[in-house]
Design brief:
This is NCA2-domain-containing protein. This protein is an all-alpha fold. The chain contains 25 helices and no strands. The radius of gyration is 46 Å and the shape is elongated.
């Protein structure tokens, strides 16, 4: 049984749990004591059968229990209403109820699955008819089958005209004479390619693509009719739960379950069903009506469902082997160049990995580890210090020779030079420049000029030291900027390979895009069913059976999505299934269910991606 049927009938199973009977008074008659022992043995047999029907219910266990009842003698004692044993009556009704609930759940499950299958196939044909490319591919896929029907039609027509079936009998002249066609009436030969046009009173010339598209639309329409039929029966059967529950909760002396097998048989299409006793009705339902309904539905459904997988795959099976062979021959002839290309590609990948990923990352780690002190510099600190000390000595020597500074004055001048102040040297230079020629020959003009050149060198070194510190402070930033493009390329490549090899696994927490789109479509259909005026001709009435059946189809998709894609034992899954149970609840009317739908959009829309699914949804083409 599906989880939908088990969830819907769980309360009914609880209603069939037998209650303890009152304790009988002591008896002294030996014959009564013997009868009591025999009844106890038979009650134990009933109780043993009852234990085989534990939830979740199993249809095979129900049939085994029914067979056991038919082959035993306990039926006349406990089911005919002649027994006076309270325990026998309680166990008898409990077993009747448990068998009825099991078959009721099986009928629910069968109708729901049939409606879901018809709905899925109708959606497939609808998707197919929306794309001319898909219609053309469908025409190619089904061409051998259409050609076979055409050949059979020609052979049948030749035999009906007593023409021998020979190769020359398939000439165009013979075929035109056998299958005359007018402008408004298609020939039998054309109808063998497209059977649906044989039911049309007139037919103008249309392209094969349009005829194939009409065929898809006709099948979709028939499947929707079949789905609505099963959905309406499902709605009636779903509403039957209330009366079954009230009957199971009635006193054990009032056994009135005999009408329910007949009602279920009528909902399954048995128009000639008549009321019988409980056991016979359950037996007919289990061994006749349910199998007959399944076979009837299979016959109706098989002629409308999509072509077989082999039919859809044969063009690829025909094309792929020769293409593979040609590709293999090309690769074998070009194996040397391909080997060289592969070697170059491997070298390129290796160079990219070590040159643009490993080494830059290693440099960043070294920078973090050493603080950037061990890296290359524009100027060395030792060179700057040596130039500054040389400038200081030159300025002190000039001041002592030309200005006659005392040791204290020389010490003060040394401090000034360290701070970049060369005022005494500039004063000497100002005096020498008044008579430059004499100062060049006998004075200190050249000496003061060289001191200023040394001062310029020291200033340049100090400026480069500042630039060096700035670069060192931003070395980590430059390292990340340099490695970022390589890491971006690496991330994109790994993501592409993961999607190719593993699909969307791990990308979406709550199911892949197909599952989430299915859930979005289902919740949208639920809301559409609840607000449709066609399905609610009277706003004051309760939910009609057809509307309820269509609602249950979409809700079952939501339950399957939750049980398949949402994390087990999580609040998300528990809350989602609670909302699904509210949509299935018979006690909730139209307005209450619409409030539940609003709550689901509000609670799960963002988390499950429903809010942007309409923008992301592409036209889904049918698969192979």
């Amino acid at each position: 049984m599906s989880t939908f049927a088990n969830a819907h009938t769980h309360s009914l199973v609880l209603d069939t749990v037998p209650k303890a009977p009152p304790t009988p008074p002591p008896e002294v008659d030996d014959r009564k004591e013997l009868n009591r022992d025999e009844a106890a043995d038979e009650n134990e047999k009933i109780y043993a059968l009852l234990l085989t029907l534990k939830p979740p219910l199993d249809k095979n266990a129900a049939r085994i229990a029914l067979k056991s009842l038919e082959n035993s003698q306990i039926v006349s004692l406990n089911f005919a209403g002649t027994a006076k044993d309270d325990e026998a009556e309680i166990l008898g009704k409990a077993l009747q109820g448990r068998l009825l609930v099991a078959l009721y759940a099986e009928a629910l499950d069968m109708l729901l699955q049939e409606a879901r299958d018809a709905d899925a196939e109708a959606e497939w044909w609808s998707d197919l008819a929306r794309s001319w490319q898909s219609v053309a591919w469908y025409l190619v896929q089904t061409f051998p089958e259409r050609l076979k029907r055409c050949f059979e039609t020609i052979v049948r027509e030749l035999r009906s005209h007593h023409i021998p079936v020979q190769l020359n009998s398939f000439s165009p002249k013979t075929i035109r004479s056998l299958f005359p066609s007018g402008l408004l009436h298609p020939s039998a030969l054309t109808a063998s390619f497209f059977p649906h046009i044989s039911r049309q009173t007139h037919s103008l010339f249309t392209s094969p693509l349009e005829l194939a598209r009409q065929e898809c639309i006709i099948r979709k329409t028939k499947l929707e009719v079949l789905r609505n039929s099963r959905a309406e029966a499902l709605g009636h059967l779903f509403k039957l739960k209330r009366s079954i529950a009230s009957e199971l909760q009635a006193p054990s002396t009032q056994i009135g379950l005999g009408s329910y097998p007949t009602r279920i048989r009528k909902l399954l299409g048995d128009t000639n069903a008549s009321e019988t006793d409980v056991l016979q009705g359950l037996s007919i339902l289990a061994f006749q009506r349910l199998p007959q309904h399944a076979s009837t539905h299979t016959a109706q459904f098989s002629s409308l469902c999509r072509p077989s997988r082999l039919t859809r795959l044969w063009p690829r099976l025909v094309v792929i082997p020769p293409v593979t062979l040609l590709l293999f021959r090309y690769i074998y002839r070009s194996r040397e160049s391909l080997h060289e290309t592969a070697v170059q590609a491997a070298d390129t990948v290796r160079g990219f990995w070590f040159g643009y990923v490993v080494e830059p990352v290693r440099g960043i780690l070294d920078t973090v580890r050493t603080g950037g002190e061990d890296g290359p510099r524009i100027v060395s600190m030792e060179g700057v210090k040596a130039d500054l000390e040389s400038l200081e000595r030159m300025a002190l020597d000039l001041s002592k020779d030309k200005l006659g500074y005392t040791p204290s004055q020389l010490e003060a001048l040394s401090e000034q030079v360290r701070h970049g102040d060369l005022t005494p040297v500039l004063k000497v230079y100002e005096q020498d420049i008044k008579s430059p020629i004499r100062s060049v020959v006998t004075g200190s003009l050249v000496r003061s000029l060289l001191i200023q050149v040394q001062k310029a060198k020291v200033d340049l070194d100090q400026a480069l030291t500042g630039i060096d510190k700035l670069l060192k402070s931003q070395e980590l930033t430059f390292g990340f900027v340099g490695v970022a493009p390589a890491l971006g390329i690496l991330y994109a490549t790994i993501g592409f390979l993961r999607n190719v090899l593993f699909g969307s696994r791990g990308k979406n927490r709550y199911g892949n895009r197909r599952w989430r789109e299915c859930a979005w479509t289902s919740i949208r259909r639920v809301e559409r069913v609840l607000i449709s005026k066609e399905l609610y001709p009277d706003a004051a009435q309760s939910i009609p059976p057809l509307t309820l059946g269509l609602l249950l189809i979409s809700v079952s998709h939501l339950r399957t999505y939750a049980e398949t894609c949402l994390p087990p034992l999580s609040r998300l899954r528990e809350g989602f299934l609670e909302d699904v149970a509210d949509l299935e609840d018979l006690e909730f009317g139209r307005d209450e269910k619409r409030m539940v739908v609003d709550r689901m959009w509000r609670s799960w829309g963002v988390t499950l991606g429903w809010t942007n699914m309409a923008a992301l949804r592409k036209s889904a083409l049918p698969g192979p």
